[in-house]
Design goal:
38% helix, 0% strand, 65 residues
Length: 65
């Protein structure tokens, strides 16, 4: 509740809460409805780790196996 106006104010979401809500609202990810939040967050952190490099201009490369 806003103390000045007395109106209800949505609480600010953390970055993690925003990520999980975004994944759950996306219709492409059918698995998201039944996947625990911790698993979604771990997956998101792994994805972020791919792009965390000392040289950001260099795109990650897939290696053939």
């Amino acid at each position: 509740m806003d103390p000045r106006t007395g109106e209800y104010k949505e609480p600010a979401l953390t970055a993690e809460q925003t990520f999980v809500c975004g994944i759950r609202q996306n219709t492409r990810f059918k698995f998201a409805a039944t996947t625990p939040d911790q698993v979604l967050l771990a997956h998101g952190r792994r994805l972020c780790g791919v792009y965390t490099r000392s040289v950001c201009a260099t795109p990650p490369r897939a290696t053939a196996r």
